Amino acid sequence: MNAYSYLTLKVSNTAFQLVFGILTTYVFLRILSPDVFATYILIAAMGGYSSLADLGCSSLIYVNMRKAYLDGHHLETALEEALAALLTYGAVVLLVLFVVGALIVTDVIQNHGAPLNLILYLLFWLLLLPWNMVRTTANAIDLYVPFEIIELMRRLLVTGFLIALLAGLEVRQYLIAINVVWGACFLVAAFYGRRLFDEFGAGKGSIAAAVVRLYCDRLPSVKAVAAFNVSAFTIYVFPYFIIPGMSFPRDALVVFDTFYKVGRFGATVYRVAGDAFLPMQTRAVHEGRTRDLMSLVGTVLAFQFVIFLVGAICLLAGSHRIFPALLNGKVEISQTIVLMMVAMLFLELIQLSFEVILINSGLFGPMAKLYVTVVTALGTVALVSYLWELSFPVFLGAYVLVYGIGAILHVPLFLRYLGPSRTKSRQPG
Prior knowledge:
Oligomer: single chain
Structural class: mainly alpha
Strand content: under 5%
Number of domains: 2
Order of helices and strands: HHHHHHHHHHHHHHHH
Radius of gyration: 21 Å
Number of helices: 16
């Protein structure tokens, strides 16, 4: 399957991902009060933040597995490490589910009389952590088409169940159903995984040794990858945890959630182009074909710029209709916030175009330094906003500014390590 056919499949998958994200806000604000919905937002953020337990190991495993696959080497070691990481993430899911579940049951996190619903919702988001390892393994050995088909089926089903809430499906029934879908997906992944282990002769009994290799023997690499992964995720989600402690209006968290979703929707669509061309980009880097690499990056930028124009026009021309309908008229999105959304979409275009190839080429050290610097700057913004009691729009504007500086710095980083003068001599950090 060529890149354009794969791109078509990715577009279909991404479309349902975006629809699900939009409908979650649309549906929940029609069956839940804003206060209850805010709790669901917090639970989703906690579940998403648990992906930090990955410590960037999925990226490290991808680089090692992809290199072995392209070189024609045996994949036993990489597959054993992938399974070790998957089982480790499963343990993390259980631990976080137990700890946060206890906080929900005891009403430390307000459960609004339905603790089981919140626990099931938390589980749905927590399972993204081990699923990311499934995605990593599939992409590294060119099984991205079967993976995207499974992912598309999953998104179709969970979106269908979400719509059914408007037709009278109970919230608890919905939450049980979407977790059952997760279970089915992992069963299919296990079927493919067993075939891979049999094909490459990997030993499931070597998992303990694989854990040692992954988290101890490769500690220097893991440190750099973890620093990048934690920083990258923190950049996007840390406002969820500090906004409730600020002197902002009560609806600030819902406004930020809407801002975040618009940005993440844009980032998700951008990644369609990035992921579709990533196998060819990594081959070009691996083989030292700088001209082809630059051409592929230019193609990705062109695709993403068209996406940006469509998104910007929709926001600028239709925000006065889109957000009142989406938020059921309960929360107002000002024009200032809309402009920040447009700016964020453009900055994400720059960042993601280069981040994908830099990370998947093994440049963890330089990327980690950049992202830790950005997180430090954002922490300073949060502290100043708290001490000086800045308004929410000012805080969000400063957030976008710092993010933008970090995004632009990806360009010289790319040219330094993968550009025409350094492709053959680069040394991954």
